[in-house]
Amino acid sequence: AQTVTQSQPEMSVQEAETVTLSCTYDTSESDYYLFWYKQPPSRQMILVIRQEAYKQQNATENRFSVNFQKAAKSFSLKISDSQLGDAAMYFCAYRRFFGNEKLTFGTGTRLTIIP
Amino acid sequence: GAGVSQSPSNKVTEKGKDVELRCDPISGHTALYWYRQSLGQGLEFLIYFQGNSAPDKSGLPSDRFSAERTGGSVSTLTIQRTQQEDSAVYLCASSLGDSGLAKNIQYFGAGTRLSVL
Questions:
Q1: Of A21, A68, B7, B27, which is most buried, counting CB atoms within 10 Å of its CB?
Q2: Distance between CA atoms of B3 and B23, rounded to whole angstroms?
Q3: What integer pLDDT is reported at residue A56 of this predicted model?
Q4: 81-100 in chain B: CB under 8 A from chain A
Q5: Do A43 and B113 count as a contact with CB atoms less than 8 A apart?
Q6: What letter does residue A58 receive in the DSSP assignment?
Q7: CA distances (Å), A28 to each of B59, B114, B115, in order?
Q8: What is the mean predicted confidence (pLDDT) over B17-23?
Q9: Which of A102, A104, A109 to mutate to test the interface with B (most CBs of B within 10 A)?
Q10: Cβ neighbours of residue A1 under 8 Å, at least 6 residues apart?
Q11: Whole-angstrom Cα distance, residue B52 to residue B30?
């Protein structure tokens, strides 16, 4: 079975600074997908960024980028120019490559932005 | 609809009562998922629907939990004889259901917070 680990329960960053959230996972499969979701106090999970494991290039979405290290099974999220609206719980998630598979989530990292 | 809609937003019930939680997916999405988020925990998968059938029920924690989906659209998650450990946020997600990544992104509702007293 696949597992996802987020070892940082809480993180904080000064507004406009850069912060990196860590995620590691365990799988025996070679093809899969990885995601970062954001959950603000409204509870609705919002997709931040996604990565296909067969792609070597790291995904980027505006101020959000990932550092995907397949051999190390590491998938960290970097948030540049942090904004107050970035404050939320961030969840790393894994999905198998084929079919309509469930997401396997880590336990989340609570990110606080300091004005 | 524009997004995944869940009702009620909050539900308080007494131990031993039955509850029904509703999920209305994005129009045209054939795949529907239920997850449970307990306090301080990540999301735990409960059940997956493709159309009206449930090929994966592996996450349902006990036989007190059941779910159905009718007309390939609305789904109801039922918890019978609720226990205090059932207190959690129940989140629903839907996706287009095709195998390609872009079409298989899961979009979430805002969840139902269930409190069992």
A1: A21
A2: 11
A3: 86
A4: 89, 91, 93, 95, 97, 99
A5: yes
A6: P
A7: 21, 36, 38
A8: 98
A9: A102
A10: none
A11: 9
> Per-block average pLDDT, block size 10, for chain A (115 residues)?
93 97 95 94 92 91 96 97 97 86 93 97
Q: Quote helix, strand, coil % in chain B, to nearest 5.
A: 5, 50, 45
CA angle B87, B58, B66 (to 5 degrees): 55
pLDDT in tens, B56-74: 888 999 999 999 998 889 9
- In angstroms, rounded to a whole number, what is the distance separating the alpha carbons of residues B56 and A84? 39
Q: Tell me, what DSSP letter sits at residue A86?
A: G
B45: left (phi over 0), alpha (psi -120 to 50) or beta: beta
Scan residues 46-65 of A and list those with Cβ closer than 8 Å to B: 46-47, 50, 52
Q: Chain A: give the shortest CA distance to residue B23, in Å.
A: 13
Pair of tokens at residue B89: 């946020």
Q: How far apart are the first and last CA of chain A?
A: 41
Q: Which two tokens stand for residue A63?
A: 């101020």
DSSP, res A59: P
**DSSP assignment, residue B71?**
T
Contacts with A, B 18-77, CB within 8 Å: 31, 33, 35, 40-45, 48, 50, 56, 59
Only one residue has tokens 């790393």, namely A92
